[in-house]
Amino acid sequence: MSHMRTFLFTGLFTGLLFLLATFTASSARAEADPTGLWLTQNKRSVVSVEPCQENKALLCGYIHWIIEGGMQFDDKNPDAALHNRPMCGLPIIYGLAKLSATEWGDGKIYKADEGDVYDGEMEMNDDGTLAVSGYVGIPLFGKEQTWTRVKGSDYPRCKKAKR
Question: How far is CA 100 from CA 11, 42, 127, in A?
Fold first, then answer.
């Protein structure tokens, strides 16, 4: 009977160690860093996700690169006084707070080609892509895009257009 207890104790102890190691490894892996350059789903622009200039605890996204022939000015903005604002460097994501190791939310997303501002959130996917969502009211009725991380050497910083 003593061998049976030793066998059970060893099995339980080994199982607990395995669970603890798995939990620790997945917790370390799950801590994600969304800062960097991201090619939008339609491949028409690259957004630089970085700490906001006004509050480094929050994340913002600024237009870093625009496809040739792409939108150069904030023409769709409902405020006509902003129509001459260059798209290059324009903040389109602002005020995203860290909600978990892989999620940010409680911020805003500006969809410049529509001139609309939405509630926003983003989440790092397991494959290294970034899910960016904009919605009104509740996320269930929003739209999501998948962005892909890119290198700055492939997408040089745009220059602010002048009218």
Answer: 34, 27, 17
* Encoded tokens for 154: 């492939």
The dihedral region occupied by 106, where left means phi > 0, alpha psi between -120 and 50, and beta the remainder, is left
Sites in the chain below the pLDDT cut of 50: 1-29
CA–chain centroid gap for 95, Å, is 12
Q: Is 97 exposed, middle or buried (0-12, 13-18, 19+ CB in 10 A)?
A: middle
Which residue, 55, 152, 134, is CA-closest to 93? 134
Percent of the chain that is helix, strand, coil (3-state, to 5): 20, 35, 40
Burial class (CB in 10 A: 0-12, 13-18, 19+), 67: middle
Tokens 């009977």 -> residue: 1
**Which whole-number Å values give the CA distances from 67 to 15, 40, 150, 152, 156, in the listed order?**
53, 11, 14, 14, 11
Portion of the chain with pLDDT greater than 70, in percent = 82
